[in-house]
Amino acid sequence: MPELHQVIVRPLVTEKSSAAFQANKTYTFKCHPEATKPQIKAAIETLFKVTVTDVRTLVMRAKRRTYGRYAGTRGPWKKAIVSLKEGDAIQVFEG
């Protein structure tokens, strides 16, 4: 089980996540693969001092990559989509 500071790996700021933020006020994070929804909720609330109302998770599948004649795979990873209480915001996504 990951510790609290290892649950959230990094925020995902992509075109699709930015559009979701504009439309629904949802935030997207890359998480530890073994993190559970309650752990993700607790980590977001303590790290960013906000109130989380909903956490949705999905595991992104591994992708095959080739580097010249060498073939390998990128491992699977977990994505968390987080909704906050009305009025709360995370500054990473705002600017």
Please name the defining characteristics of this protein.
95 residues, alpha+beta, Alpha-Beta Plaits, four-stranded antiparallel beta sheet, two-stranded antiparallel ribbon, 6 strands, globular
Number of helices: 4
According to CATH, the fold-level topology is Alpha-Beta Plaits
Strand order of the largest sheet: 1-2-6-3
Poorly predicted runs of 5 or more residues: none
Cα end-to-end separation: 33 Å
- Overall tally of structural domains: 1
Q: What gyration radius follows from the Cα positions, in whole Å?
A: 15 Å
Percent strand: 35-45%
Describe the protein in words.
The chain is α+β, with helices and mostly antiparallel strands and 95 residues long. It has one domain (4-85): RRM (RNA recognition motif) domain (Alpha-Beta Plaits). It is built from four helices and six strands. The protein has helices spanning 4-7, 15-24, 37-48, 91-94, and strands at residues 8-11, 26-31, 52-60, 63-67, 70-74, 77-84. The strands form two sheets. It has a four-stranded antiparallel beta sheet with strand order 1-2-6-3. The longest helix is centred in the middle third of the chain and has 12 residues, at 37-48. The termini are far apart.
